[in-house]
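Interim report, section 4.2 (structural modelling).
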Amino acid sequence: MRGVPAKFNMKEALSLLIQECKSMRELKQIHSKIITTSPYMTHKDHHFLLSRLLFFCAFSRSGSLAYAVSLFRSFKDPNLFSYNTMIRSFSSIKERMVTSLSPFRLYKRMLASGIQPDNLTFPFLFKSCTIKHEPNTGKTIHTHVIKLGLDSDVFVCNTMIYMYSMCGLSDIALQVLNGMTQRNIVSWNSILIGYLRCGELDQALSMFCDMKERNTITWNSIITGLVQGGRPMESLKIFHEMQRSKDVEPDKVTIASVVSACSYLGALDQGRWVHGYLERQGLKADMVIQTALIDMYGKCGCLERAVEVFNEMPRKDVLAWTAMISAFADHGLTKNAFGLLGEMERQGTKPNHVTFVALLSACAHAVQVDSGRRCFDLMRRVYGIDPLVHHYACLVDLLGRAGLFEEAEELIKSMPMKPDEFVWGALLGSCRMHGNVELGEKIAGYLISLDPQNHAFYVVLSDIYAKAKQFEGVKRVRKLMCERGIQKTVPGCSLIEVDGQIHEFSVRGSAESVKEEIKWLLNILTIELKFAGYVPDINEEF
DNA sequence: ATAGGGTTAG
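Predicted structure of the assembly:
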């Protein structure tokens, strides 16, 4: 410290130390140094160092948010930088917080103490609005942006656009977009993603076609959006178009979505191809891709490959475990599924509500009533997971399949929430299975009154009558459907992959090229099933 | 500083 003003030296040195800090231990040492040297510093410098320390604590990999919070709480008058740090820290948390640390409370406190927010404050406030789905809070903050003249900032505007479009307010999003003096690709992508998230897929597609500039995120967003929106076939088409386009290269995100598209389609060859493509591109499968691969191989009936990918994983989170569990469940391997539940617990991963949906549906498909009841209990008592409607639907499905109608109805009555159409639908399906006309009529009547335009419930009711040979009933349902103008708009269809080509086939007919091959395949399957001792339930077919 | 990925059910 010789020859240089101590004040200057101290601040610079400590600031450098913070930047290079590698652990919390080091950080605490620096913290105490800042405190002990504070008499030799100006207040401003002291505050500067503490706020840098806070920033490091909040965002560095070796930092600690808990320590950041305690640091922040020790500040008497946090500066703008510290407020921004805290708002950013909590902007990605979905739960509505009761503490003073919610971004909105921090923002209010900041305004109350006379500090003016800046262009770095707003993006994170809008992010918080997006995550919590609070467009009205967002609108209020939007007015502050205008008052402060920050409505020309690209970052601020883009996060506003994203918020509005994700909340389904694409009109306002477009207004913001049109008012911008300079837009960039993020502005357009934000609108596009909003459309996709709100299920306006055609709107998104038409915008995608009109876009002059498209980056990887644009392509990935549309591919993912189509898969999640239940149009995986189109997403594969866009993926192939992406490969042909010169200006972008598929990345890990693309691969994850495409693998996911393949599992929806049962497109094993395409899925395998993407798996190979990933390696050819020199990309390594990360946890997300591996999980998608497990799901894909599982859904395509290739359990061995699913297990292989699973065993190769160095790290597994709940989603990975759950994907493997449901692959076992889909293959009727209830024991393996439950075995994995124990294994995941031993390895320190807690199952979540999705894991239990997978387990319960495994029990339902295998009609293992005792396992199902025990599983439901286990979930509540041991894992402290409150059952959601989905879980009740699985259990109702199981009890119904087992013909335990009274218990199923009792369970529905005991539900803490309103049973939805899936819960009743599960029981209705069981009525069809067991020929329970009386209960079936009651449930179908109720479901039809809820959603008179949905053809599905009429069809099941008609099946129930047909199975009981009550053809008057069948006629009544058909007449009702005619009167109400209800048609089965989209015929049920299945997908089959032949030589890497995906074909749709349905009762209404299929492409000639694959028809013969499908017939041939079905014949073989029927013969093999007979050998295995399977007796088809032809009562269902009328 | 802002935008994109994986698990369940029907």
